[in-house]
Amino acid sequence: MLRAHLIDDVRRAEAAAMAHLPDGALMQRAAAGLAAAVLDVLGRAYGSRVLLLVGPGDNGGDALWAGARLAGRGVAVEALLLADRVHEAGLAALHAAGGRSTRDLDDLHDAPDLLVDGIVGIGGRPGLRPEAVAALEAYADVPVVAVDVPSGVDVDTGRLEGPHVRAALTVTFGTHKVAHLVDPASTASGALHLVDLDLDLIGGPAVEALQPDDVRGLLPRPGLDAQKYTRGVVGVRAGSSTYPGAALLAVSGANTGLVGMVRYVGPAHVADTVRTAHPEVVGAGRVQAWVVGPGGGDDAATMLAEARRDGVPVVVDADALGHLDEAAADWVLTPHAGELAAMLGAEREAVEAAPLEHARDAARRWGCTVLLKGHHTLVAAPDGRVRVTTTGVPWLATAGAGDVLAGLVGALLASGLEPHDAASVGSWLHGAAATQAAAGGPLTASRVAVQIPQVVRETLAGLG
Ligand SMILES: NC(=O)C1=CN([C@@H]2O[C@H](COP(=O)(O)OP(=O)(O)OC[C@H]3O[C@@H](n4cnc5c(N)ncnc54)[C@H](O)[C@@H]3O)[C@@H](O)[C@H]2O)[C@@H](O)CC1
Ligand SMILES: [K+]
């Protein structure tokens, strides 16, 4: 599991570690990891030029000490000092290793190959000062390696307010931070590299992200004595005369072999289309979970009321979300930002600016799991736990992808997974299937569903 912690928890763990380590030991570990990561990006030391952007705190200290190490390896290192006072020992080390420093942007002539953003770390407030903005603008085409976090983002919430760094790579220390994983700040973090500081983090993670091993451990798999009914039966109530395709897509997400049987309940001519495409799908009967809403149109309220009567877990998606008055603890709601905004009486822009906060609010308000779709989909539990999905590609933002996801999450619920696991594993598989199916190019929702068994196969085999 990849975990992200809040600043306070990181500070507590760092203080505990520093109490029994020599002065500066943690910073040296951080700087060594940072210098190694920068060298990896540069590919060679001699002939490479690096510019450090150095702020007032220990984040700048990390950058300076790493700069000293890089200069020692033959990299031409310059530091632009963006504060009256910077980390003294770090600056002295940089000078001793042959690096240069200046406070004036005009002193710098040759464009560097790489910027190292040591402006602020976990002590930073959102936004950047004009001097930092000017330096970033002067080298707008140069890739940035961020130290700990891209400066200017709101580290604990993932909000973006005011100017901030856009990193190609963020080298972070001890544990991940919320802004690395949660939108919109995750889009400013680039690739992530964690330098282990051997910290003892006592507080639980603020958010976590499933990794292939976690998914492998959670995936349902049939025992030797499996029967179709014991593997779980999922029912889909979706589609209408206006949107028959949504039924097909939701069923294709449900019918990937992860449960013993899929039922479809809907208008007769839609059911015919569904069964033509998926001959193994049967009609009404007992299920262990319902998927309700995709393409439901005017029928969505009735679909939801009928599904509720069975007392089994329900995935509430799309049109059905507008008819939700109350939910049970084992339900999963799967809105996108616009739908969640309507559910909470908020503006869509507010949800997009702070998806973590809104997903948590919704999970508390309805007392059930809420899966908020986005670049990094969030799965929030009513007790505050949040998982974030880091699989997927932007091509996945395509019509019908949500219908497939709803069907898949329903199948996982029917197979017996807890709602938090069903939603987060479903979202992980959906993203991984999209990445595979897209293979660097465009994608349709139907292709995502077709790819799911292959992703499950590779994950079970430990190839993920
Ligand atoms: N605490 C530790 O043990 C370790 C800390 N490390 C580094 O130390 C960092 C935290 O250092 P600090 O606590 O000194 O804090 P920062 O280096 O994040 O900077 C805080 C300083 O920046 C100023 N500031 C705040 N927001 C600003 C903004 N938007 N623009 C300009 N200046 C701003 C503040 O007034 C304060 O002086 C971590 O992110 C990490 O990089 C690492 O060396 C590993 C060990
Ligand atoms: K930084």
TrEMBL record:
Mind telling me which InterPro entries this protein's record contains? Carbohydrate_kinase_pred_CS, CARKD, Nnr, Ribokinase-like, YjeF_N_dom, YjeF_N_dom_sf
Q: Where is the signal peptide?
A: none
Domain YjeF N-terminal: from-to ranges: 10-205
**Record note on cofactor:** Binds 1 potassium ion per subunit.
Which residues of this UniProt protein bind (6S)-NADPHX? 58-62, 121-127, 148, 246, 295, 336, 403
Where does this protein hold AMP?
Answer: K373, G374, H375, H376, T377, G402
Keywords, A to Z, come to: ATP-binding, Isomerase, Lyase, Metal-binding, Multifunctional enzyme, NAD, NADP, Nucleotide-binding, Potassium
User: Could you tell me the EC number(s) of this protein?
Assistant: 4.2.1.136, 5.1.99.6
Cofactor (UniProt): Mg(2+); K(+)
Coiled-coil region(s):
none
Describe the reaction catalysed, as an equation.
Answer: (6R)-NADHX = (6S)-NADHX; (6R)-NADPHX = (6S)-NADPHX; (6S)-NADHX + ADP = AMP + phosphate + NADH + H(+); (6S)-NADPHX + ADP = AMP + phosphate + NADPH + H(+)
Q: Where is the YjeF C-terminal domain?
A: 211-459
Residue positions annotated to bind K(+) are N59, D117, S151
What task does this protein carry out? Bifunctional enzyme that catalyzes the epimerization of the S- and R-forms of NAD(P)HX and the dehydration of the S-form of NAD(P)HX at the expense of ADP, which is converted to AMP. This allows the repair of both epimers of NAD(P)HX, a damaged form of NAD(P)H that is a result of enzymatic or heat-dependent hydration. Catalyzes the epimerization of the S- and R-forms of NAD(P)HX, a damaged form of NAD(P)H that is a result of enzymatic or heat-dependent hydration. This is a prerequisite for the S-specific NAD(P)H-hydrate dehydratase to allow the repair of both epimers of NAD(P)HX.
Assembly description: Homotetramer.
What family is this protein classified in?
A: Belongs to the NnrE/AIBP family.
Give the protein's recorded name. Bifunctional NAD(P)H-hydrate repair enzyme
Species per Swiss-Prot/TrEMBL record = Nocardioides baculatus
Question: What gene makes this protein?
Answer: nnrE
